[in-house]
Amino acid sequence: MIDLSNKQQNKSEPQILPFSLPSCTLFDNESYKYKWNNKLNGFYIKIPKGRLFYAQNFFNKETSDKYIQYFLENQTNDWHSTNWRDFEKEKLPKINFKNIDWQHDKLNMYGKEVYLPRYSAWYGDSDKPYTYSGLTLQPKKWTKGLFGIKKQIEKITTVKFNSVLMNWYRDGKDHMGWHADAEPELGKNPVIASINFGATRDFMIRKNDNPKNNTIKIPLEHGTLLIMAGEMQHFWQHSVPKRVNIQESRINLTFRIINH
Ligand SMILES: O=C(O)CCC(=O)C(=O)O
Fold first, then answer.
1. Residue 122 belongs to a domain
2. How far is the CA of 233 from the centre of ligand 1 (A)?
3. In testing the pocket of ligand 1, which one of 171, 194, 236 has its CB within 8 Å of the most ligand atoms?
4. Is residue 23 part of a domain?
5. What is the pLDDT of residues 115-141, one digit of tens each?
6. Which pLDDT tens digit goes with each residue over 87-121?
7. Ligand 1 in contact with 176 (CB < 6 A)?
8. Nearest-5° angle of CA 121, CA 125, CA 129?
C-alpha cells in the first residue's frame, strides 16, 4: 500500500524564473512580468491576456515518486522498468491497474479512427461529463489519491475543482498538439491547474495573433505545478511536443471546473 500522506511542501529561497519570457514590451498592460511569492513558493507570471502561476517544486521528489507509483500500480508490471511503449492498444486492458482506469481513446479524423498519442483517464464529480475533440468522457469517481492532490492544490487556489483529466505520455513519442481549453463547459475564463509527474517535458504556449514573437517554453518537471488563468484560453494555445529521446513516462493531471 502506498502512503500518500503529504508531509511536506518544499520551501526554498526566491529564485530567478527558470525559463525565459519574450523580451518584447508591448503596451504597459500587455507586457510580461513575474514576481516570486515566498509563501506559495512559486512565481506569479503576467502575460498579455493571461496569467500563470508556476511552482517548480510544488511536490518534492519523495511525494512525486509515490504519486507516479500510485498512478501506475498494477499486479503484473513494474511501473518503473516496464517499456510502456510496447503496451499498444490491445495489451493495455489486460493490465489490471489498481488505482487508475487508464484508457486508450480514439478520435475520428477525416472519417478514420486513430488512437491518441497518449493514454488518458477522467475523474471527478459524477454529474460532470466533459466533451473535447469530439469525445465525451464520463468521469470515474474520485479516488483517495486524486482527491488528495486536488485538496493540496486547492490550498493555494481560490477555486475548487470538480474534475481532473489525466494524460499519460508513455515516452517522448507521446505528445499533445496545439489547442486551447476553451470548451463551453469550462466557463468563460477557466482556471486550470496542471500538475506533473515523471519525465520533464516542455509545455509550450503561443499567442494566437503573434505566435512568432510570443512562444514560451515552460519545462514541467517531476512535482511542478502550473496554473493557467485569466483570458488565456481565448488568446493563447498550448502543446506538449514530441521529444523522441525521452524514454521515461510522464503523467500530467489538469484539474478543471466543469459547469453545465
Ligand atoms: O500534458 C500537459 O502538460 C498538457 C495537457 C493539456 O494540454 C490538456 O490536458 O489539455
1. yes
2. 12
3. 194
4. no
5. 899 999 999 998 778 887 677 888 999
6. 665 677 788 899 999 998 888 888 888 889 999 99
7. yes
8. 60
pTM > 0.85: yes or no: yes
Test site for ligand 1: of 123, 132, 168, 240, most ligand atoms within 8 A of the Cβ: 240
Whether 205 is in a domain gets the answer yes
Asked if residue 1 is part of any domain, the answer here is no
Give the domain extent around 139.
Answer: 28-254
Smallest CA separation from ligand 1 atom 1, residue: 252
Least confident range from 179-188, 200-209, 248-257: namely: 179-188
Which residues on neighbouring strands pair with residue 237, listed in sequence order?
206
- What is the signed CA dihedral for 153, 154, 157, 160, rounded to 10 degrees? 130
CA of 122 to the centre of ligand 1 (A): 13
Secondary element (H or E) of residue 136: strand 135-137
CATH of the domain at 34: 2.60.120.590
Count: domains in the chain = 1
Write phi, then psi, for 17 (nearest 5 degrees).
-55, 125
- 31: CA distance to ligand 1 center in Å? 25
DSSP 142: P
pLDDT of residue 90: 60
pLDDT at 14 over 90: no
